[in-house]
Specification:
This protein has 415 residues and is mainly beta. The chain contains two helices and 29 strands. The two termini are 39 Å apart.
Length: 415
């Protein structure tokens, strides 16, 4: 399948170095002189890999717990029905289904402060919100065709039109926003079409730059691409994995710059027409990335197994551990991840990881579906770095009522 990648840019880019290779064998995108670039080889058979020294403390330096206050006007749905955004002072929750409500809570005490905005068809109302982001004093909500901006007290500031439905939103600075379009490319056989994985826009909705791939049309016409890619923040910059060229890009003020390229050895997730097939379990399906100055942690599913890897950015060494999932099936598996030597509290990677913030943290939600597993993990935990916080969390679990809002566990990442 022929693919080429291009940028639609209205800004001046950095000087470029030689290009890495994508699935088509053509240039993925040229590398920046100022952003470190790595090739990571995942083409080997990692079945049975038993690296036992993957530790949460490799990337985490501290932890805090927040019990969100339960009030009649501030009921939070449990994952995966809720998205979170956190700032140094606030926690914002978006109920994505049923009532589609946006709430603000105090970051320190968990006290419910207020709802923000409302669902409706008025000029200041939200329609079909799908993602949130918070920074400084503002909250950003992305929906089917707009990005809504509110201040933290709920006052509507502006509504920005976008070209296509967005799945997530974040900000580069006070002049530029980022969103991932929700799209299913429909391209007839023999025709070439475009796939946009990220757009950078100004506050009028004008596209300043984008990551665009050219795809060759196929029988059936509709591509099964991921419109909600794995994304994370490192050094305050958004990074995302682009499955059309197996490359991680950083979205910066200077441009959309490649940082990592994966050699998947023929186990790439199929970019083709139609829905997933049973044989697709042989493909590598990335579930989460977390990054510090020393390490990139990677979680993927393959052959109904969970794999966790630690890539040392200084030495280039890759260490992999295979795990049996404790739940899930086929392409959506839940596993425990690196050994939690911080407080002993359960699992932090994959679909359970719901953090969307620039602060460098992992956000884990304790709810009725996982509270028993969390309690069991805490009671069995030994030699943790914060035993007093382990005890604090056990006490919070004992005091929690069945219908209470979730407890949030916030792990602070190392720089």
């Amino acid at each position: 399948m022929k693919k080429t990648s291009c940028f639609v840019c209205l800004m001046v880019f950095l000087a470029f170095m030689s290009a890495c290779k994508g699935r088509s064998g053509k240039a993925v995108e040229e590398k920046s002189e100022e952003i470190e670039f790595h090739e990571i080889d995942l083409s080997k058979d990692f079945t049975g890999s038993t690296c036992d020294n993957l530790l949460l403390s490799d990337i985490v330096e501290d932890v805090e717990y927040v019990q969100l206050e339960t009030t009649e006007n501030g009921l939070v749905e449990c994952y995966p029905r809720t998205k979170y955004a956190i700032t140094p002072n606030d926690i914002f929750t978006l109920n994505r289904f049923s009532k589609k409500e946006l709430f603000r809570f105090d970051r320190t005490t968990g006290k419910f402060i207020s709802p923000i905005g409302q669902i409706g068809q008025g000029p200041e109302d939200m329609m079909n919100p799908s993602g949130i982001y918070a920074e400084k004093n503002n909250v950003y909500v992305v929906s089917s065709d707009h990005i809504y901006i509110y201040d933290k007290d709920g006052e509507h500031l502006s509504t920005i039109p976008i070209l296509s439905s967005g799945s997530t939103v974040s900000a580069i600075n006070d002049e530029r926003l980022i969103y991932h379009p929700r799209q299913r490319p429909h391209i007839s056989e023999g025709v070439f079409g475009k796939w946009t994985s990220v757009n950078v826009i100004d506050f009028e909705g004008n596209v300043l730059s984008a990551k665009v791939d050219t795809l060759e049309g196929i029988t059936g016409g509709i591509y099964s691409l991921d419109f909600n890619p794995q994304r994370w923040y490192y050094s305050g910059q958004l990074n995302f994995y682009n499955e059309t060229d197996e490359t991680v890009y950083a979205v910066t003020e200077e441009g959309i710059i490649p940082r990592y390229h994966f050699n998947l050895g023929g186990n790439e997730w199929p970019v083709r027409a139609g829905s997933m097939k049973k044989e697709d379990v042989e493909c590598i399906s990335f579930k989460a990335f977390k990054e510090t100055g020393d390490y990139l942690y990677i979680y993927w599913n393959q052959n109904q197994k969970a794999y966790f890897a630690r890539f040392d950015k200084n030495s280039g060494k890759l260490e992999v551990q295979e795990q049996e999932p404790f739940s899930g099936s086929l392409w959506q598996l839940f596993a425990f991840g690196p050994k939690n030597d911080i407080d002993g509290c359960g699992s932090y990677f994959g679909p359970i990881d719901i953090s969307e913030d620039k602060l460098g943290s992992i956000l884990f939600e304790i709810n009725p579906d996982n509270i028993d597993r969390v309690r069991e993990a805490l009671e069995k935990a030994e030699n943790v770095k914060f035993p007093e916080k382990r005890q604090q969390l056990l006490k919070m679990l004992d005091e929690r009522k069945e219908d209470d809002n979730p407890i949030l566990v916030i792990y602070k990442l190392k720089k």
